[in-house]
Write a structure and sequence with these properties.
Oligomer: homodimer
Distance between the termini of chain A: 27 Å
Helix content of chain A: 40-55%
Order of helices and strands of chain A: HHHHEEEEHEH
Number of helices of chain A: 6
Chain lengths: ~140, ~140
DNA sequence: CTGTTTGCAAAAAATTTGCATGTTC
DNA sequence: GAACATGCAAATTTTTTGCAAACAG
């Protein structure tokens, strides 16, 4: 299990946006920063994170920005139970273990990944990510009680 | 790639519900039937499917039933883009190739599955399903134009 | 009978849109 | 300066809830 921690400084974020052909704005940098500092946040977690800053960013902009980021491949949308999406800065294809009970997402990156993905790519699918629905160890224990 | 087509007759459905400790009602049988006949339907697709019958089933009941089915392990909820969940009758853990462009879900079941899942179960995760976000062959072609 | 389940309509939650104004390149 | 991005509030879409009536076991 690996904890990958992507770009860090404001300059990194700036070039990250540029490299994806995205016009740079104050609010987009803030959304990117939130994505970097939060762990697989939802749109409203990102909104909350930014809310304190001035000028604050509107909800609509957060959603529009996330849609743009996802369309340009800068982020990946991980859809969650009951109509809630979570987002992550896109790294290479890796595996997210997504607990359906507590909602926590654990990143996973091991040798099996490549072998698995190649089965799909060989058949013409372009793999963007992989989400495994699980009960995490602690929720499994809890459900046994 | 395998197309698994689960239970068929009304009797099968009946015992399916019973085997999961779910009280049998007319509306639950209808929801189960919809799940059987439709391909990874959303809640509202299920609602539409049933709408023609008499007595019709309320939306709330469809949602309540799906939540119950998922809780008892009868179905699995596959979260989709933009706050929309899809459902499938639960088979054994298998892989869903989920196209983020057209939304289509392709079932996949091959030998690689076991090896991959055992990596997770060995670490205490209980695996319920696996969704791979992809661009399917035709959407990949379309996006190149 | 007794506890569950349902329908309905209203509420909540999540996301999108219209449009006038402000900003990037 | 032209094209694009933003804020705001209103509109949509998806899902949940409250409560009285109906139903399963």
């Amino acid at each position: 299990m690996s904890r990958r921690r992507p770009p860090s400084s404001t300059e990194d974020l700036l070039s990250l946006l540029k490299s994806h052909g995205v016009k740079v704005t104050h609010q987009r940098l803030l959304v990117a920063e939130a994505l970097m500092k939060l762990d697989h946040p939802t749109a409203s977690e990102i909104y909350e994170f930014i809310a304190s800053r001035a000028p604050a960013v509107g909800v609509a902009t957060v959603y529009r920005t996330l849609r743009l980021f996802t369309k340009t491949g800068l982020t990946r949308e991980i859809s969650s139970m009951r109509g809630l999406s979570r987002y992550e800065l896109y790294q290479r294809p890796h595996i997210n273990l997504h607990c359906i009970a507590c909602g926590h997402i654990t990143d996973f990156d091991d040798s099996h990944t490549k072998g698995l993905f190649s089965v799909f790519t060989r058949r013409g699918f372009r793999v963007l990510g992989c989400d495994v629905a699980v009960l995490c160890p602690s929720c499994t224990a809890r459900s046994r009680r």
